[in-house]
């Protein structure tokens, strides 16, 4: 199904540990089914983004544990190509957000095995060798959006090659079917309006990740 608002490519920057990015990613996969859209996935690290910043102790603990899955994802992309992130993010995210499995080597190895990716990529979780690439990917996602924001960050490339970049949407639960398509139409419409910057209200629900 096509729409006058349909775009060719939606590039999503995700942090594997962020529940809001997970929900947005599942929404975009629904959008693929009802609009002429193809989603590409990229890694964004909230741990890196908040490195050195003063944050609440609970959030610092959350960030400290977020390095591992982001590093594994960026290492897989660098070795095996961007296209592996689609399935790897799903494999990581299902374990992290749905199964509530503890972060660690077993989770990474299981996710990698599910995607037929090399098991030794799990070693990247505790290494810094790919942090420059992680920094570059994070900057690429947030550059057109604003570095004081985070994930989900989406860049939409239209048929004319113009890029429309924005943070969000932050939504729960995952919109499905026609509802996913209608949200896509609305988000692209308002985000593409010249001079439009913000539409927001207080959250009244915790993320529903299923």
UniProtKB/TrEMBL annotation:
InterPro entries: Rv2466c-like (IPR053977), Thioredoxin-like_sf (IPR036249). Gene3D superfamilies: Glutaredoxin. It comes from the Bacteria. SUPFAM superfamilies: Thioredoxin-like. This is Disulfide bond formation protein DsbA. It comes from Amycolatopsis thermoflava.
């Amino acid at each position: 199904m096509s729409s006058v608002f349909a775009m060719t490519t939606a590039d999503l920057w995700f942090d594997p540990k962020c529940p809001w990015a997970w929900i947005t990613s599942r929404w975009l996969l629904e959008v693929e089914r009802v609009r002429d859209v193809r989603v590409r996935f990229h890694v964004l690290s909230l741990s890196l983004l908040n490195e050195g910043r003063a944050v609440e102790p609970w959030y610092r603990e959350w960030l400290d544990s977020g390095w591992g899955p982001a590093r594994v994802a960026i290492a897989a992309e660098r070795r095996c190509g961007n296209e592996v992130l689609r399935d790897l993010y799903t494999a990581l995210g299902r374990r992290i957000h749905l199964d509530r499995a503890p972060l660690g080597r077993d989770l990474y190895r299981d996710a990698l095995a599910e995607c037929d990716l090399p098991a030794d990529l799990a070693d990247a979780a505790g290494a810094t060798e790919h942090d420059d690439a992680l920094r570059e990917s994070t900057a690429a996602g947030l550059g057109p959006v604003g570095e004081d924001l985070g994930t989900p960050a989406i860049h939409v490339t239209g048929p004319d090659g113009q890029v429309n970049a924005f943070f969000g949407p932050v939504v729960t639960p995952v919109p499905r079917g026609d509802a996913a398509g209608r949200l896509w139409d609305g988000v692209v419409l308002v985000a593409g309006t010249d001079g439009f910057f913000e539409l927001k209200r207080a959250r009244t629900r915790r993320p529903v990740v299923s």
